[in-house]
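Give me structure tokens for this 142-residue protein.
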Amino acid sequence: MSSRDIEGENPLYLPQAKIYDSSFAMSAGIRPAWEVPNPYRLPISLTVTRNDVVTWQGESSTELLHRTFDDLVEHLFRCYSLPDGALLSTGTGIVPGLDFTVRPGDQIRITIEGLMDLENTVMVVGAEATDRTSAAGGHTIA
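Here you go.
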């Protein structure tokens, strides 16, 4: 997930909105690309649950990717040495409207049919997160 409060300040902050402590999560297993029958037809769903109630959900598919996986991998390795391989994260393409914001404690579940289920709990990160008396607080992320 991206930190909407960072990203919302200025579109130029997009890299900072995606890279912070606990910003990346992956499922319990990795399935090699050559084992996926058709990587361009994978349904993706995202559900946000708050206090055991689904508060937001959305769907997408890998068939909506603008670039091929081969193209993305070529760009990844073009000027970056990764001798032992890499995990390429494309994101889900599922974005709630501006009227919805996750809260600490929300459960985020992403499912890619036939591939993985990933579930994380939203938390506050950043130096301010340890000082609960701070009015500003940290950045809410999942």
